[in-house]
Amino acid sequence: MKAARHFDYRIGRRIGFLDGVPGFWWSVNGKLFPDVPMYMVHRGDIVRMTISNTSGDVHPMHLHGHHAVVLSRDGVAASGSPWWFDSLNVGDGETYEIAFVADNPGIWADHCHNLDHAADGLLAHLAYVGVGTAYRVGGDAGNSPE
């Protein structure tokens, strides 16, 4: 099957500001959170994502709301039994090609499961076209961020 969407998730580090604080922060595609554009999908899309890590650290990357299959690691096609996951340890210098079906509408976090890294900006969102949220920062939506 041919993928309807292909996204890059390049993990790195850069100098910048996170919540107004200067530092050397984790980045996604060279951007600092919250300036990382959302990955936008339609329900039913087959999505391919290339996850590469040049950050100098290992990251257990977690995909909320979906299960993915590893297609390749460092350019070598996966073989044998399918490698399904929702969390994938991506070592420094490694690149994974993964795929999943966009079959769970919502706005989902894709982040490093070393939560200190996520809090320091190693976070992106996957959203479905036409799906919104009632949550507003500082608003009365009946929920709150962690």
UniProtKB/TrEMBL annotation:
Metal-binding recorded as keyword: yes
Gene3D superfamilies: Cupredoxins - blue copper proteins
Pfam families assigned: Cu-oxidase_2 (PF07731)
Keyword Transmembrane helix: no
InterPro entries, per the entry: Cu-oxidase_C, Cu_oxidase_Cu_BS, Cupredoxin
GO molecular function, one term: copper ion binding
Protein name as annotated: Multicopper oxidase
PROSITE patterns: MULTICOPPER_OXIDASE2
UniProt entry keywords in alphabetical sequence: Metal-binding
Domain Plastocyanin-like, first and last residues per copy: 26-126
